[in-house]
Amino acid sequence: MRKFSYIVLLITLVSVLIPSMVYAQEAVQEAAAAANSSGMESFAELVFGSGMVKWFKDGGWAMWPILIVALYGIAYIIWKFIALFYGKINLNAFLDKIIPLIKNKKYKEAAEIAKATRGPVAAIIYAGLLKADGGIPAVEKAIENAAMIEMSYLEKGFLELSTAITLAPMMGFLGTVSGMISAFDAIAAARAVDATIVASGIKIALITTQAGLIVAIPVQFFNNIFVTMVDGMVINMQKATEKVVEAML
DSSP per residue over 66-92, as a string? Predict the structure, then answer.
């Protein structure tokens, strides 16, 4: 009988303690999540300022995809800038090294200099000099084939930048539509038109549109700069080809 009482008491204690422990664990997890969220928000306020964080939060859910598109665009801007900057060379200095060698029929030495030089201009000249023994038609054909390959490399990244330019305003407009829907829902619920009722929805609509344009405009600006840089490299490739062919005549 006494053992039975002990068992009943033990079961009672377990039945009371387990829910309490589960509740305590959930409370700790919620507190930790809140602390992490608060910590991230504090860090964001420290880096970007409280006004920027408040502006982001006021924009609603659409601000998150816009932020992802912004990071996507920034990543490709950095990558494209490094790639084009690395490929840019001093054309006149490069030609001053190889043209005298080409005129003296020292194609191997000129090819070694081109091989050691970075960038698409040097790459196509190197490809052409490898076919120097086959005459000018073979050189021009090799340069043409190499130029097509180099152009494909130069055009990399533009599609991704165009995607960011297009998606950012579209995400902003989607947030705008969502904000206007919220505003009309508030009007329908209140059965009256009041500026204070629709202000929240309209604010979301305007912030998301603003955010989309803030992302798209700089990405478009850098995209145009990169297009100009690529055009300059293409012109240098054409100039270098003409100089090399003239030197071989």
Answer: HHHHHHHHHHHHHHHHHHHHHH---HH
pLDDT at 18 over 60: no
Nearest Cα residue to 104 out of 248, 241, 243: 248
pLDDT digits (tens, 9 = 90+) for 214-229: 999 999 999 999 999 9
Rg for the chain, CA atoms, rounded: 33
Instruction: Give 202-220 as a DSSP string.
Output: HHHHHHHHHHHHHHHHHHH
Residue 191 contacts residue 114 (beta carbons within 8 Å): no
**Taking Cα atoms as reference points, which of 215, 214, 221 lies closest to residue 71?**
215
| Separation in Å, CA 235 to CA 231, 238, 240 | 6, 5, 9
In which element (H, E) is residue 22 found?
helix 2-48
Q: Average pLDDT for residues 43-57, to the nearest whole number? A: 74
Which residue's entry shows tokens 């060379």? 89
Predicted TM-score (pTM) above 0.85: no
pLDDT of residue 20: 40
- E-assigned strands of 83-127? none
What is the predicted pLDDT for the residue at 38? 62
Q: Which of 202, 155, 196, 150 is nearest to 181 (CA)?
A: 202
Beta strands in 113-239 (DSSP E): none
Residue 185 contacts by C-beta under 8 Å, 6 or more apart in sequence?
201
